[in-house]
Amino acid sequence: MATTLTTIDVSEWQDPETVDWRSLISQGLKSVIVRLSHGFTADKKASAFVKKAQSLDLIVHGYHFYEGNTEEVSFSVRNAQHIGLPNGAHFFLDMEGNIPGDWQTILYQFAPEWLRNGWKPGLYCSDSPYKAKFDNSKLVADKITRWIASYDYEPANYDIRQYSSSSGKLDLDYDKSGLLEVPYEKAKHKPDSSGSSTDNFPPLSPGTPTGDSWVGWGKDSRYGGGQTLGYSPNGKDFYAVFWPGGLIIRPKDAEQIWELIKDKVKRAGVDIGNLTIAWDKITDKPDISIFAKVTDVHVAETTAENALSSAEKAQATADANSKALADKANRSELPVVPTDLVHTGELDQIRTDITQAKQESAQALAAAESANSTLDTSNKLVDKKPSEYQAGFSHEEKAAGALEVTKTILGQDLAYNTVGLLTSVAVDSDGSHCVRQRFEVINSDYPYTFERTGTGDVWYSWHGVTVWD
Asked: Which of 70-84, 250-264, 434-448 comes out lowest in average pLDDT?
């Protein structure tokens, strides 16, 4: 089958301003696949390419280059949301090179999360590893869009074919299926009222067993892979329990395990109501004296605000005194005073004192204004590293999902975009840069509160600190 240009794929290796868009469109260009991220790094030109393509009425899709860590799933979601990948767009996982593990299992760790966020999942892969590592019939059944690279021949199974690729130049693609040209439709991904999934992925946790349930060997309906020991609650969806990587624990299993161990955890010193651990029960505790208490931060805020008010009053007083003195010193109608009563030195000293007072009040005003807290709303969906916070305190508006608060037991019911106030305290001590954060949920029925600490580029786990009545 002859290949026809319908699509190009781009990354930071190209420049959106130097691409000959007019020529490409005249050749049949309809859509653009933009690299949004690789590993834990956002593509430097992704946003520029998305905006440029949309300005030309081209349909935009995205891809994430996999670098070997399944924790890239949550990052790819946050980054795509930040860039603005439209609902209904295709989102491809780029898999190439020497990737350890089961490639299909890795793909199915990304696909449900992307679908859940409104994107249609897809795979980019060369034809040879595709044939060796993937079950084509399963990908077709699950509506995983297959973007296959093959330059010398037409592959047997594909939806989109990358037929030309050269270093520094545009990669050219042929959309045989026409899937990339379909106007955006938000992908269906939520379970219906019966608990069944409206997409091709079963619910993450199994439902109540029916008369068709069974236990035995099978392939996991959600993640694929080889034969595993597990069960089907309904005769249709199969949930693996044991596989070569070990035991698979699902949310429903975790809840059942928690009921069995929570009393023992409580006896060990954990306050399970507040999800906190008694300090005296922790051994080998780090020295946290370098961290400022949140109450100290609030005191500092109040002090800064009071300093600002006092500085403004001092500035006004200094201005008034300076003007009054100048008026008296320059008036020609002042009476002649005997020289032994004119204290010129004292008058000069007064002028000097007033000038110094003005300077000091101006400095105090500047310092107070810089210390006065402001709310940063510019990066709601970005979770910064501890090293990105300067010494001092700051306030930011953040989404719970972006900070992964939603992965905690207390915060698991929060929506990704649940808004909260993030207060950060950063200090430099003994060569270490340490940060303590407090996340307070705003738009929720319950006043959830979480805290965590971090140093360098590493955050430690969130802990719920909300006290309930």
From this structure: 250-264
Residue 294 pLDDT class (50, 70, 90 cuts): very low
Contacts of 252 (CB under 8 A, 6+ apart): 205, 206
Compute the residue count for the chain.
469
For residues 323 and 316, what is the distance between their CA atoms, to the nearest angstrom? Answer: 11
Closest to 139 measured CA to CA, from 177, 194, 84? 177
**H runs (alpha helix) in 185-250:** none
Predicted confidence (pLDDT) at residue 89 exceeds the cutoff of 60: yes
What distance in Å separates the CA atoms of residue 251 and residue 207, rounded to the nearest whole number?
Answer: 12
Instruction: State the Cα–Cα distance between residues 399 and 310, nearest whole angstrom.
Output: 36
**What does the alpha-carbon distance between residue 171 and residue 169 come to, in Å, rounded to a whole number?**
7
Q: In Å, how far from its chain's centre is CA 277?
A: 28
Residues 257, 263, 265, 270: is their CA dihedral positive or negative? positive
> For residues 119 and 91, is the Cβ–Cβ distance under 8 A?
yes
SS3 239: strand
Highest-pLDDT range among 196-205, 281-290, 296-305, 442-451: 442-451
Query: How many angstroms separate the CA atoms of 160 and 127, rounded?
Result: 12
pLDDT on residue 59: 94
User: Rounded distance, CA 258 to CA 264, Å?
Assistant: 10
Q: Tokens 């320059």 sit at which residue?
A: 330
The closest alpha carbon to 410, from 444, 359, 386, belongs to 444
pLDDT-derived band of residue 274, with 50, 70 and 90 as boundaries? low
What are the φ and ψ backbone dihedral angles of 302, each rounded to 5 degrees?
Answer: -60, -40
Which DSSP symbol is given to 61? E
The pLDDT of 293-306, averaged and rounded, is: 55
DSSP state of 339: G
Q: What is the pLDDT of the chain when averaged over all its residues?
A: 79
The tokens describing 250, both together, are 């699902």
* Pair 372, 304: CB distance under 8 Å: yes
Residue located via tokens 């990908």: 139
**Contact by Cβ (8 Å): 446, 466:** yes
Q: Is the pLDDT of residue 297 over 80?
A: no
How far, in Å, CA of 452 to CA of 410, rounded? Answer: 14
Residue type, 29: L
**Which tokens belong to 81?**
């949301």
Task: Give residue for tokens 């595993």.
Answer: 228
